[in-house]
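Cast an eye over this sequence plus tokens and walk me through the fold:

***
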Amino acid sequence: MMFIFTVITLAGFAALLWHVLMLPLAFENLRFMRSRLDWSAKHVLKNGPQVELFIPCKGNELNLESNLRGFLSQNYTNYEVVFIVETERDSAVPIIQKLMASTHFKSRLAIVGTASDSGQKVHKLRIATAQMHPKTSVLAFADSDVLPDPDWLGRIVESLVSRPECVTGYRWMFPRHGTFANFFVASLNSSVAGYLGRNRRGLLWGGTWAIQRAAFERLQIRSAWQGGLSDDLIASKVIKRANLPIHYEPVCLVCSSIDYSWTSGLEFVRRQLVITRKHFPGYWFGGLTAIALTQFAFWSCVLLGTTRWLQGYADGTLFVAIGLAIYLLNLIRAMLRQRMAVLRFPSLKQQLTPAAWYDVLAFPITGPVALAIYLSSAVGSTITWRGTRYTMRQPSEKSRRGLKFEQRTATRVKMAQNPELPSQTIYNFGQIPIPTTESSEKPDAISNETSRIRAA
């Protein structure tokens, strides 16, 4: 019995110490958000280097039309949007074509076919980035399920110009309905956002990031994507191996509406964790250690302390106090990250409130469920993403990029431009060079081929 008491006491003080050490980071990240918002209010870039913005799409997902309209309504003027879909039968295509016809900004639709050796999103990005305009200086990437504000692109490009060579944002989830599943997923996502700050050792998030074209080509990110599943974690790994920083830009935190069932919500969280475990096992293990220690210490102290207190033992008060202190520190950190969201989205404060209350108060509920999902992600390598089942392998096995999935036929690339711009023809993959390595000559060859296609 004494051994159990000792273990629980040590775990309690260890968890308490960890949360105390994390509290200054939460305050610093809030201060960082405030300082960047003040800075960006005076430094919004309206015109600058030419940008190509790549947006993979699939299906008529939640708020798709309003999200894509946001990307076509940026205050930054020197950019072109590339919408990328798998087939022309995709239900997103009519919406994209409607929006393209109603905008004066340059935009085009890339129909890239199904993937045969990589995840579909990675396949879309590899094909699309192989056909960049010769004058493009910056590549920006976004997901179709996020809603940018009108200055989003100008802010991320301005940040990239002042802090090269790679800048990332993140998402803040807005539940469409006030269900437990939505609040749970939004709470986990907000806890990740709360860790993001000035630290340059973070990872890219594929839903909003930008990189200098010179760095993209020098690091051969397109080649690294071949055979891969996660566009952002593969790019993160390449950038980190080159000892380059990844700058987080809090003013590029974007809205993402969600509406999960319990099944889809748990599947989403587990998928993120499995992919992270495969690419960055250190990050995954660190997260597992933190959440396991916290949950074990909290519940052990609360349950044991309550039992001992009811039995009249003096040490019961100490255990209960440790458990309550852990809860209080989590509550304060949740309040600080929710304050970050209010600063970033002041006009959406009312929509933020229900999920914020859950995030602040529901630590005893969220924690055990999150730990269970974390433990489930420790085994197995199969995930489901956008209707496709993938089995991830280690690079030492047959798939050199650590990915295996159901083989599907890649058919063609079709580029459909804004009706106001010259139209383009259908070309087979073989007519558009997509290099497996990116020497200094090959990007020029791609650009020249693209120029000839457009001239046609």
